[in-house]
Design a protein that fits this description.
GFO_IDH_MocA-like_dom, about 325 residues, Rossmann fold, oxidoreductase, Oxidoreductase, NAD(P)-bd_dom_sf, alpha/beta
Length: about 325
């Protein structure tokens, strides 16, 4: 560690920031939250007081100008991710940006370019990937215990359809279930298989009363070796967040794949085995890895190039959902 913890500023007072990421950073071993900004100064001040954050700013620009900040966390609506990530990096800050990194792969590629040109670390905030259980899952697959992987099925759904003013229901802001939760099983399949998919086919419920965003989507993502990810995601369905990896000789069942209980199960001809996992605050693990990457103590496990690759799949899913076609990636 350097002679001081990594000092984060938070751009915006979104629910994910207030309820999860800021508490996670505060619980981390490496980082602190030193400032928060809102376009409403009173809101920033109230949030700062509630979460014991030393400074509050009434504009994002003021926060980026603070010389005592090392990094910023950006939980803004999706259409603002590229602008404020780039402005932050150009202001000399490292950036942890909420998922999905951008509205499309082109925007994500531009953000990658700025990260490289400024020398500032840019990371997409998929916190679940930092729990060691995913390394354990990959080790089990590599051991051959479940045989050859034949397919993966992932889900992430919740019901929030009544909140008509939610930013998730603004199409021009990057609303919809594929952006919001479908990105999780997509990223998980890429992580587990260690490869990039070839094509996507998605069917979606496009809701006129929610600005024509996809409120529910079901799809298949084609990987090489004839392996597919089948997934469904939604914001107008009962809550689930599961993952199942099916092999020739067994399967791995993850009942709470992205949030919740970290334990999972291995099913083989010899029976069912529970893999007990230690409970961690994955937001704290994410902050610790981010800080150690900034300090050069660790290599980035998931750099912005990974986010560009994930956005390419999301682009294909959205195009398929709205055109009813299979889209090559």
């Amino acid at each position: 560690m350097t002679n001081h913890p990594l000092r984060f500023g938070v751009v915006g007072c979104a629910g994910i920031a207030v309820g999860s990421v800021i508490p996670g950073i505060k619980q981390s071993a490496t980082s602190v939250v030193s400032a928060i900004a809102s376009r409403d100064l009173r809101k920033a001040q109230e949030t700062a007081e509630k979460l014991e954050i030393p400074k509050a700013y009434g504009s994002y620009e003021e926060l980026l100008a603070d010389p005592n900040l090392d990094a910023v966390y950006i939980p803004l609506p999706n259409h603002l991710h590229m602008e404020w990530s780039i402005r932050a990096m150009e202001a000399g800050k490292h950036v942890l940006c909420e998922k999905p990194l951008a509205l499309n792969a082109g925007e994500a590629a531009r953000m990658l370019e700025v990260s490289r040109s400024t020398g500032k670390h840019l990371a997409e905030a998929f916190m679940y990937r930092y729990h060691p259980r995913y390394d354990r899952i990959k080790d089990i697959i590599a051991s051959g215990e479940i045989g050859e992987v034949r397919g993966i099925h992932g889900t992430f759904t919740f019901n929030n359809h009544a909140d008509k003013n939610n930013v998730r229901y603004r199409k021009d802001w990057g609303g919809g279930s594929i952006y919001d939760v479908g990105c999780y099983p997509i990223s998980a399949a890429r992580l587990i298989l260690g490869s990039e998919p070839e094509a996507a086919t998605v069917h979606a419920l496009i809701s006129p009363e929610h600005d024509h965003v996809d409120m529910m989507a079901s799809g298949i993502i084609e990987f090489d070796n004839s392996v597919g990810l089948t997934f469904d995601c939604g914001m107008w369905a009962a809550f689930r967040n599961t993952l199942e990896i099916v092999g020739t000789n067994g399967r791995i069942e993850v009942p709470s794949a992205f949030i919740g209980d970290p334990n999972f199960y291995v099913h083989t001809n010899e029976g069912k085995r529970e893999e007990k996992q230690e409970t961690f605050n994955t937001y704290a693990l994410q902050a610790d890895h981010f800080a150690r990457t900034v300090w050069g103590e660790e290599s980035a496990r998931f750099g912005p190039d990974d986010a560009v690759a994930n956005m390419k799949v999301i682009d294909a899913c959205l195009e398929s959902a709205y055109t009813h076609q299979r889209i090559r990636i």
